[in-house]
Write a structure and sequence with these properties.
By secondary structure, this protein is α/β, with parallel strands linked by helices. The protein folds into three domains: about 260 residues, Rossmann fold (3-Layer(aba) Sandwich); about 90 residues, no CATH class; about 45 residues, no CATH class. Helices cover about 55% and strands about 10% of the residues. It is built from 23 helices and ten strands. The strands form two sheets. Strands 1-10-7-4-2-3 form a six-stranded parallel sheet, with helices on both faces. Strands 8-5-6-9 form a four-stranded mixed sheet. β5 and β6 form a beta hairpin. The protein is elongated and about 95 Å long. The N and C termini lie far apart (about 65 Å). This is Lactate utilization protein.
Length: about 475
Amino acid sequence: MPAFPAAARTALADSQLRANLAHATGTIRAKRLHVVSEVDDWEELRLAGAAIKDNTLRHLDEHLLTLETALTARGATVHWARDAQEACRIVARVAKDNAVDEVVKVKSMVTQEIGLNEALATEGVAAWETDLAELIVQLGDDLPSHILVPAIHRNRAEIKAIFERSMAAAGRPAPDDLTDDPARLAEAARLHLREKFLRARMAVSGANFAVAETGTLVVVESEGNGRMCLTLPEILVSVVGIEKVVPTYDDLDVFLQLLPRSSTGERMNPYTSTWTGVTPGDGPQQVHVVLLDNGRTRALADELGRQALRCIRCSACLNVCPVYERTGGHAYGSVYPGPIGAILNPLLKGAGHDPQTDSLPYASTLCGACFEACPVRIDIPSILVDQRAKVVDAHRGRPSVTGVAMKGAAATLRTGRRLGLAEKLTPLGLRAARLLGVAHRWTSARDLPPPAAESFRAWWQRTDGGRDDDQA
């Protein structure tokens, strides 16, 4: 992926994309504001959510060990993964050990983060997305562009065309009389997925939360496809970021009030699925939980940035962001787009290694709307400013146009003689820059006023500091 400015420029030229995004984010914003206004203690809930997350992160090592103990006691196998490659190897090994050549997946951003589908494909294992929006993205050979609604950049006509073009190659084809009516599109997806649910022996999930005291994993969703994944297959592998842990069920109660209102604008999720290890004769009889780091301890070590690990993936910050609404998620080049992605990706990967990642902290107007919408009060604007400083620090000492310009300015301003010479040469230099196109990247977005006919120093000398003869 190119750096954000280049990718955003391409997205801004797509009028259909901008129309799709404006309609979708505007609808979700309005729904969220309505249901949030019904809660008298909404700010207290936000403060409680932030406090629970911060306290959990301060004692994360203890809570993770408690979670592991509880999961193991209930028949689950716990794996620890340092990075994406290790997590993918673990999931692939479980599939191979059980002679599985296809898996169904409940929507999981963390498996997209680690590139699990692609890793399984290299091992001969097909991974089928079952969330409707994820299915659209997969069949369209596309990338997700939103945390909650991965296909937000598509309209109904585009989805119909994708189903007609691609469903047959992946399983049951689309009906011959398919229309772009939402109910008909959902029915086509249901029929297509049903045969996969009934056939698959293994499922892969993420988790919205993991309750340490009981070893319970939680997935919230709107369609019920996730519940099919969590109950029908005989093998279940859940890949869970280590920041998803909450200590107790009482803590979970707070987030189950915050999440649905902030994400889908609903008072509660249509489907909230919980599972705790293995229950003989009911549901998956082989349960694996992969606890993933993949840069999270790096983020935890950042005194200001660690609050990004409070994120409950609600997408409220995306839906209010003026930048995201105009560029969409693909411009961010990551499974985590929008304001939260602009801080989370640099925190997980570090600054100075990748130009695309280094560009993300600048993908913001710093208007603060994201902080106001965040249900766990992540101060995204402050972290963005801090990450910008880290990007600058990471590039110190490397040759750059900005660095050369600043060194030239420092040398010029060091003595009055050099400054005076620069003032005389400025008009000539600006004319040459315009003719050669040197300053185009600056002047294309900013007004560059013409230099004054007379410099301040010359005026001072000519007027003796502004005094006329009578004053003298």
